[in-house]
Amino acid sequence: MLVSSFRFVLLSLALLVSAPALAQTTLFEVSKGDKQIFVGGTIHLLKPSEFPLPEAFDQAYGKASHIYFETDLEAASDPAFGFQVAQAMAYPLGKTLHSELKPEVWAELQEYAEENQFPLQQFIGFNPALVGIVLTMAEAQRKGIGAGVDAFYYEKAKTDGKPRGELESKEDVLEYMKAMATEDGNEIIQSTLRDIRNMEELMGVTVAAWRKGDLAALDKHLGEPMRTGSPAIYQTLLVDRNQQWLPKIQALFNQEGTSLILVGSLHLTGEGNLLDLLREQGYKVSYYQP
Known about the structure:
Blueprint: E1 27-32, E2 35-42, E3 45-46, H1 55-63, E4 66-69, H2 73-76, H3 79-89, H4 97-100, H5 103-115, H6 128-142, E5 146-147, H7 149-160, E6 164-166, H8 170-180, H9 185-197, H10 199-212, H11 215-229, H12 231-251, E7 259-264, H13 274-280, E8 284-287
Parallel strand pairs: 2-7, 4-6, 4-7
Antiparallel strand pairs: 1-2, 1-8, 3-5
Helix pairs in contact: 3-8, 5-9, 6-9, 10-11, 11-12
């Protein structure tokens, strides 16, 4: 499933060890001296039946004076930004999905579109990276899967008047999308189709692991397949972004109050994860204990 809305978004979507028995969910305390922040791993897309969310997240939210997200969710949903993304992800004149994909991949994509009433012709002029995201979101909607943890707390903070911030700008997001557009489109479409055909099962094991704080299982089901099947995408969407976020997170230790940072759970597990990067900088990282 594409994470931050990739699998790429999704799912958005740490350590290769099982969570200890006391861990309630994928939420951590990061501290140095007497200063601490909370870092929560999220699931970008959830079924309504998954609410309410784990109590630990509400507790951390209540203690936090500031809430930080991967990006500004409201700005990212602006139609003007959507137009920028569409422009950046459009094929140059003369190229289409039909002309650029391998015949067998194009045939597989056509078959899926026909079976699921997906309007493929509307997206034939766009790069597979964007088409993969749209396919994933359309399938999620069809299965009744909607906004997840990030959107829930974004709206809650907005309603409560709690200060919000982000780790990256809209321009950063646009650059990641452009980087995605250089990857093998055949692999993107094929992996997307595999994932959405198994979306129910994948969502089930992912949400169960997230609720338990089982980073090893999250990496097994989501991180490892991306790392081995699409290493360049893994590097761009996870490792590189973690490195760019690190100094911004460190700066929060100089800010008054306590911050809660919410990022896709894959940013907390596998190679180059945020929690390990923080440990390497001398921070203490532990599961949040109510």
